[in-house]
Every structure is written in structure tokens, then in C-alpha cells.
Amino acid sequence: MLIELIQVAIGNRKNLSHSLSAKEWWKLYDEAMKQAVAGVCFAGVEKLPKEQWPPQNLLFEWIGMTEQIKQGNAVVDKQTAEMWKQLKKEGLDAAILKGQGIATLYDSLQLTVDSLQLGALRQSGDIDIWVLGGYQKVCDYVQRTHPTKDVAYHRFHYDVFPDTEVELHHRPTLMRNLLDDRKLARWYNSFKAEDFVYLEDKGFAVPPASFNVIFILTHIYRHFLFEGIGLRQVMDYYFVLKNSHTDDTDNTDILKTLRALRLEKFAGAMMWVLHEAFGLEEEMMICPMDEKEGRFVLNEILLTGNFGQADARYRYKRLFKLRHHISHGSHLLMHYPSEVIWTPIWLIYHRWWKWVHKLRIEN
């Protein structure tokens, strides 16, 4: 029923297949919160016929939650533009990854609720910015402006806003198979500053659609394997594909990249999930659907919730990162062996990488 409500929100359904009891509505609301789609789901509620609306006490709570999401988005939009303009002033080329950049894609389909664009109802997270120039260039800027030792293989935490986390990426993403990670690096390094798209109404630039088709999929894949993902990330990809397709779209290069990165199986599963859960049309897909794998992936998504926060299977292991990652990935081994097998090697390598680069920062 949560999936049906999302379909109503994004214009692919007119009502629910049956009315819900008050208890069922509260359960649906709790699940929408776990999946980080409560705001978009409220857009669905407002489109339902009155006889299918939730009970009044839940409706009032939902309205309050939606107002918080709208206000949060307004704040993060402003902070994102401020951060991007500061980087531009410093002579750094940058693009907003995920988050507020993807929210703009929700608006492109002109899905409005009481004249409010759907993107304003997408629950915001932190601000991720890809800064071109490589590790050293980004490191120099960070240490000169807001020094930190919190460095990772692909990003710096940038402590500039008290209420919003900012990450400056010297690599937009990564793969744990270090051989595939090199291929991925060659792919994203083929994009230059002139490829970025400046959004005048938002005051920041975003990557082109051809970048997001692969990048957002790798982001979902990484979190799916080692933490868990929720419907918000999947919904983001729905809007990426809806906005990337044209009548002359040729998926040849996309398929070539997917195969090089061993992503074709997961991509096929995601196409089925997007079709089943969101109503994505086959002509919008980047590869054929894989129903069997898709059912497995969708079940995992519903079990884990947003970034695995609702997953009760491995909670006792969360204090031990290596143990948690191996436990979470172990049942995925037969599905996606490459990344899972490389995980212990990657975690050791990353610890060494961080140690070396922290020493260089200190000295």
C-alpha cells in the first residue's frame, strides 16, 4: 500500500486499491518515515479521494511533518547555493551530487500539490559536492578554510554549517573492487566543468543527465550491498531516468559502462523494481528487466529502510564496522560476488589510505 501511495503521488495511479483502517494508515505512515518518503507520500494523500484519506489525528501529524520537510529543503537549498558560490569564488569547479540537485528533477515533471512542486517534499539529507581537481586541490582548500582530519578515500567532511552536514568529494563515488574502481575513475574523470549544468533559479550547478544515470546507480549499489537502501534512493533514480530519456536516446554506451563495472545484473534488477514500484515505462529503461533478481532486491529494500536504519538483522554487529559489513554482505555473496569478496581487502586498504593521508595533513 505504501508503493501504491507513492504511485499516486508521482501521477501513475489515481487511488488506492482499497481503503485502509486507522491502524493500517499509522503502519503505512511509520513505514514511509523509515523509507524517508513521508513528504512525497503526503502528496499522494492529498490526491486521494476524500473517502480514502487517513484519520484526522494522523493527517494533522503528517501535515506537520511535511511542513518540516518543506522548511528543511528551503534551508538546505540556500546553504547549497551559498556553498557552491563560495567554491566558485575560490576558482573551484564544482557540481552538487544527489540531494538538492536530484530534487530539481522531481520538479521537471510538473507534479504539483497545491501549487507546490514535488521536489520540495523530498526529504533532504546532507550536501554532497564534487569538486574537480583531485585530492590535493580539495585538501588544500579544506585545510585552509575549515581544517579537518576527517578524510576518506572519496571525500572530506566540511564543517561549515551547524545544522547541515557537508561533504566535499574529490572522487564522486567509488567501488570496493579496486580494479573496477579504476575503471569507474576513468569514466567519471571524462566529465569536465563545461559538462556541468548551471541552474539559475537554484544558484548552483549539477552534473549532466548522462552522469547521473551511472552515478546514482553506483551510489544505490554501494549502499545496497553494505548498509541498505530505502525507497527514497530508488525514487531518486526513477526521476533520473525519466529526465534522461529522449526520443533518440541510445543506451549502447550505458550498457558498455554497466558491463565494464559489473553492474548489469543489478541494473536489470533495478529496472524491474522501478517498473513494479514506480511504474517506469520500458522505453525509459537502460537495460532489460530482471524480475527474479528484482524481487530479491525489492525485498531487501523493504527490509532495510533508509540506509539500513530499519534493518533488525545485524543491529548487534553495528558497533563493529568490519563485522557488520561482512555480515550484511555475506547473504549477497552469490548475487554480487565481486564487491562482497573485495570488502575485507578494501577495508584494510582504506584504513591504510586514511592513516597515510592523515599523517600528511598533520605534517
Topology, element by element:
Elements lengths: L1 H8 L12 H13 L3 H10 L8 H34 L4 E4 L1 H9 L4 E2 L2 E2 L9 E5 L3 H11 L9 E3 L8 E4 L8 H11 L8 E3 L4 E3 L2 H18 L4 H14 L7 H9 L3 H15 L12 H14 L16 H10 L6 H26 L1
Parallel strand pairs: 4-6
Antiparallel strand pairs: 1-4, 2-3, 5-6, 7-8
Helix pairs in contact: 1-3, 5-9, 8-9, 9-11, 11-12, 13-14
Describe this structure in words.
- The protein is of the alpha+beta class and about 375 residues long.
- Among the domains are: about 210-310, no CATH class; about 315-363, no CATH class.
- Helices cover about 55% and strands about 5% of the residues.
- It contains 14 helices and 8 strands.
- The strands form 3 sheets. The chain has a 4-stranded mixed sheet with strand order 1-4-6-5, with helices on one face.
- Helix 5 (about 100-105) crosses helix 9 (about 230-245), helix 8 (about 210-225) runs antiparallel to helix 9 (about 230-245) and helix 13 packs antiparallel against helix 14 (about 335-360).
- The chain is globular.
- The N and C termini lie far apart (about 55 Å).
- About 40% of the residues are buried.
- The mean pLDDT is about 90.
Outline the biggest β-sheet: 4 strands, mixed
Distance between the termini: 56 Å
- Helix/strand/pairing category: alpha+beta
| Helix and strand pattern | HHHHEHEEEHEEHEEHHHHHHH
Q: Let me know the number of strands.
A: 8
As a percent range, the share of strand residues is 5-15%
* Tally of helical segments: 14
Q: What is the alpha-carbon Rg in Å? A: 20 Å
